[in-house]
Amino acid sequence: MSGTDDHDHEGHEQSTSMASRVGELVAKLEAKGILSEAELDAAVEGFLLGTQRAGGPALVARAWVDPAFRARVLADANGALDEIGVDMTHWVRVKLRAVENTERVHNVIVCTLCSCYPVSLLGPSPSWYKSLAYRARVVREPRAVLAEFGLTLDPSIDVRVWDSTAELRYVVLPRRPEGTEAMAEPELAALVTRDALIGTAVCRAGAAGSRDP
Amino acid sequence: MSPRFRAGDRVRTRAVNPEGHTRLPRYLCDREGTIETVHAVYPLPDDRARGVSVEACKKEVLYTVLFDGREVWRERSVEPLSVSADLWDSYLRPERAR
Amino acid sequence: MPSTHDVGGASGFGPIVREAGEPAFHHEWEARVFVLTRRLLQLGFYNLDEFRFAIERMPAEAYLGSTYYEKWFAAIERLLAEKGVLP
């Protein structure tokens, strides 16, 4: 874990002070027998390990190769995830809904009120997803936002924004890129980026191994 | 608890949010939309945020409501879009079909 | 009651800043706050809506001036105090 603002003196001091405040609170809770520092360390480790197994790309790749599975993903995403062994429990067991991109519709996900996100499926959300700028803008000017992300949509495509205001979490089922007919599931899964699952990108053939910006 | 609305029904969101916690974003207040999906009954977050237990809190049917961007943003519209939110029954009232 | 958090459609927040290869957490204390928040919720000290409401009740200047996990920490501190756990 590396700080990105190590060269920013003020940011560094602020963070040091936060670290000590958090440490003090944990010590107080530990003194009361509520939890232990070791338990929190284990939870961090467990969470970070879990994020490496984030199930979104596996879900999409299976849906691309198996039309019956795809239908189940769209009808009952939690049931489909159970089939491939991904547990949606994070804070609570949340209901997941997959929304499908088509030739006509492009879907984008946001939470304008806080930062709801399918963490157990996609791992921790990127900072930009939680930013005031994204939350404020994507419900009013999604095409402009997507263009800033490098995705210019044809004007004939309808843009649909899903504001996650309840205990329902959304994930975009992206379109399978052309020229991937011969690929097997693991190869296909490698084309599925986090941003494509949020809807701020599309999947492209030849993007394997590429990282989200 | 049977749902008050069905998919396709026209609804209008309440005009003003109450004090306290609620999950109807302001930009969707007093807007006309269409019921897209009828979900299950869920605890009302407005109650839960005050510490009311799951057992004692109000429970209401949750709906996904779809809005047209022009209805939402009116003179502030900058591009075509549709937007949906997941809203509890008491945030909505019936609106006559156009 | 501030509704600073309710930002859908608001102008003036500028461009969306993205960080290449962003780590899950930028500081160890952020990861601590993340699991601490979840653990205290699981233990029943507050529910998710109370947690969200605690963030929403921050004064506007504090809400806008705090980082994401600073807001979370402020919410935990407030809830633990209000509920008499750590007065």
Could you characterize the architecture of this molecule?
The complex is a heterotrimer of chains A (213), B (98) and C (87). Chain A has eleven helices and four strands. Chain A is an alpha/beta fold and 213 residues long. Chain B has a single domain, classed as SH3 type barrels. Chain C has a domain of 46 residues. Classes of the chains: A alpha/beta (213), B mainly beta (98), C mainly alpha (87). The interface between A and C is large, with 54 and 48 residues.
What descriptive keywords fit this protein?
heterotrimer; A: alpha/beta; Nitrile Hydratase, Chain A; two-stranded parallel sheet; 11 helices; 4 strands; disordered N terminus; B: 98 residues; mainly beta; SH3 type barrels; five-stranded antiparallel sheet; 2 helices; 5 strands; 9% helix
How would you summarize this macromolecular structure in one to three sentences?
With 213 residues, chain A is of the alpha/beta class.
Produce the secondary structure layout:
The complex is a heterotrimer of chains A (213), B (98) and C (87).
Chain A: H1 9-31, H2 37-52, H3 56-65, H4 67-75, H5 77-83, E1 95-100, E2 105-110, H6 119-122, H7 127-130, H8 132-137, H9 142-148, E3 158-163, E4 168-173, H10 185-189, H11 194-198
Parallel strand pairs in A: 1-4, 2-3
Helix pairs in contact in A: 3-4, 4-5
Chain B: E1 10-13, E2 32-43, H1 45-48, E3 59-68, H2 69-73, E4 82-88, E5 92-94
Antiparallel strand pairs in B: 1-2, 1-5, 2-3, 3-4
Chain C: H1 28-42, H2 48-56, H3 60-65, H4 68-82
